[in-house]
């Protein structure tokens, strides 16, 4: 009987192992230098900054149009989340017919809305202006109060409103921190802070008394026209040699 020989089964070719994909580390953006780690401004430098602002603009004015403390109060309340130009456009006609608390009440909320309907949140603001007019009449004899706490007690008025009114109407050395002042205080390193109140108190601490009457206007104007949010105009900045911002372009 013939011996049967079986052929060995062909070996399967080994399946090549998949090469692991090389992981390439993505370059990380260099960390921004914390303003807290930057050398603080010296009193001499801060004096120099505000001396330059004063020389360039000796009598800075707020850009909200008004005719008396009451209309200033109303204009500031209306300016929340709105531009000064937009508020002025609405109040020019409004203040011709309602420049006192009593005239504002006589005008009434519905008519007031018609004057300010081009301003954001105009319905809420109209309600607040009528309510604050009534309170100024009933609790303060028709005159805008002269303390921060009293102004803050009025509907629609907060700390910034109080600081603007106290400064512009009554000449007090207050620091109103809006979005521009908040940005300048942090970006330059003059008064870094996480909240408007921190920046306000920081600026009040370092700015010499001789500059405080106009300081908040200088900082607002600087932030509005030079130290812009998206593209600061460092090349024309009056204080670019002193500014602590790590990313300044000069």
Highest-level CATH class of the largest domain: Mainly Alpha
SSE order in H/E notation? HHHHHHHHHHH
CATH superfamily of the largest domain: Hypothetical protein, domain 2
**Strand residues, percent:** under 5%
Number of strands: 0
Number of helices: 11
> How would the global form be characterised?
elongated
Q: What are the low-pLDDT stretches, counting only 5+ consecutive residues below 50?
A: 1-5, 18-33
CATH topology of the largest domain: Endonuclease III, domain 1
- Taking the alpha carbons of the first and last residues, their distance comes to 102 Å
Please provide a written account of the structure.
This protein is mainly alpha-helical and 250 residues long. It folds into two domains: 39-61 and 175-236, Endonuclease Iii, domain 2; 69-170, Endonuclease III, domain 1 (Orthogonal Bundle), CATH 1.10.340.30. Helices cover 50% and strands 0% of the residues. The protein is built from eleven helices and no strands. The chain has helices at 43-56, 69-78, 84-97, 101-107, 109-116, 122-140, 148-152, 159-170, 179-188, 196-206, 212-225. The termini are far apart.
Keywords:
250 residues, disordered N terminus, 11 helices, Endonuclease Iii, domain 2, mainly alpha
What does this entry show, briefly?
This protein has 11 helices and no strands.
Helix and strand topology:
Layout: H1 43-56, H2 69-78, H3 84-97, H4 101-107, H5 109-116, H6 122-140, H7 148-152, H8 159-170, H9 179-188, H10 196-206, H11 212-225
Helix pairs in contact: 2-8, 4-6, 5-6, 9-10, 9-11
């Amino acid at each position: 009987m013939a011996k049967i020989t079986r052929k060995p089964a062909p070996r399967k070719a080994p399946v090549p192992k998949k090469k692991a994909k090389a992981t390439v580390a993505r370059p990380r953006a260099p960390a921004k230098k914390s303003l807290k780690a930057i050398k603080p401004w010296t009193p001499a430098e801060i004096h120099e900054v505000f001396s330059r602002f004063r020389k360039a603009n000796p009598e800075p004015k707020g850009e909200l149009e008004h005719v008396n403390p009451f209309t200033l109060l109303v204009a500031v309340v209306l300016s929340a989340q709105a531009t000064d130009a937009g508020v002025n456009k609405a109040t020019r006609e409004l203040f011709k017919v309602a420049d006192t608390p009593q005239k504002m009440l006589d005008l009434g909320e519905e008519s007031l809305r018609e004057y300010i309907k081009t301003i954001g949140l105009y319905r809420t603001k109209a309600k607040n202006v009528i309510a604050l007019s009534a309170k100024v009449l009933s609790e303060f004899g028709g005159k805008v109060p002269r303390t921060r706490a009293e102004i803050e007690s009025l509907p629609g008025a907060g700390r910034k409103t109080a600081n603007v009114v106290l400064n512009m109407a009554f000449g007090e050395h207050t620091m109103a921190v809006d979005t521009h002042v908040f940005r300048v205080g942090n970006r330059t390193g003059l008064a870094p802070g996480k909240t408007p109140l921190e920046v306000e108190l920081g600026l009040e601490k370092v700015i010499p008394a001789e500059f405080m009457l106009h300081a908040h206007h200088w900082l607002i104007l600087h932030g509005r026209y030079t130290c812009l949010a998206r593209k600061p105009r460092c090349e024309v900045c009056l204080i670019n040699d002193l500014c602590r911002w790590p990313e300044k372009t000069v």
